[in-house]
Amino acid sequence: MLRGCEKGSNNMADSKTDREQIDDLFDRWRAAGRASDVEELVGLVTEDAEFWTPGVPPLKGREAVRAGFSPAFAQFEVDQDFQRQELVVSGDWAFARGLEINRVTPRVGGTEIVRRQRAFMVMKRGDDGQWRFARGMTHLPPEGE
After folding, report:
1. Which pairs with CB-CB distance under 8 Å and at least 24 residues apart come from 82-88?
2. How far apart are CA 25 and CA 45, in angstroms?
3. Is residue 131 part of a domain?
4. What is the pLDDT of residues 48-63, one digit of tens each?
5. CATH code at 122?
6. b/e map of 91-128 (b: 16 or more CB within 10 Å)?
7. Is residue 60, in this structure, part of any structural domain at all?
8. Residue 7 scores a pLDDT above 80
9. pLDDT in tens, 111-141
10. What is d(CA 8, CA 5) in angstroms, rounded to the nearest whole number?
11. Do the bridges between strand 93-106 and strand 59-60 make them parallel or antiparallel, or are there none, so unpaired?
12. Could you tell me the end-to-end alpha-carbon distance of the chain, in angstroms, rounded to an integer?
């Protein structure tokens, strides 16, 4: 289903399918991480976003995303990739599951750290018609996977 026409919007994103818009959301997240652009990341999550990562407290809300990524970007170059295995879209909600690959390199020099983890992401379309990340959960796969 194409979005936006029924709302009378002229937004360029309206001509894209939901799946294409969600692909763009993942691309924008990756580009923002590579550019160390915390404010772009903050704009890509819902106000009530919550992300669970093993061994650390949940990131809850936009301010937590800002507070969590700002020091990380100061210390590391970050490249996050997502290899999607499934995407389901239902109305204004969608979920994706797959493999997240995080590559971080210390800015002061040093060895790149690569962490592969299973990921489950929930996205929500806002009143403005834009898809954003609303929930996320990751966990480490078994050795060798």
Report:
1. 82/26, 82/30, 82/119, 82/121, 84/26, 87/19, 87/22
2. 10
3. yes
4. 999 999 999 999 999 9
5. 3.10.450.50
6. eeebbbebbbebbbbeeeeeeeeeebebbbbbbbbeee
7. yes
8. no
9. 999 999 999 999 999 999 999 999 999 998 8
10. 5
11. unpaired
12. 36
Residue 91 CA to its chain's centroid (Å):
19
- Name the nearest CA neighbour of 95 among 65, 133, 58, 63: 133
Task: Give the domain extent around 44.
Answer: 15-138
Q: Which of 116, 119, 134, 106 minimizes the C-alpha distance to 45?
A: 134
In a domain, 9, yes or no: no
Q: Total structural domains in the chain? A: 1
| 144 domain residue, yes or no | no
pTM of the shown model: 0.86
Are the C-beta atoms of residues 131 and 95 closer than 8 Å to each other? no
- Determine contact, residues 64/42, Cβ cutoff 8 Å: no
Closest-CA residue to 76 (of 110, 117, 28, 32): 110
Separation CA 99–CA 118 (nearest Å): 5
- Dihedrals φ, ψ of 2, to 5°? -85, 140
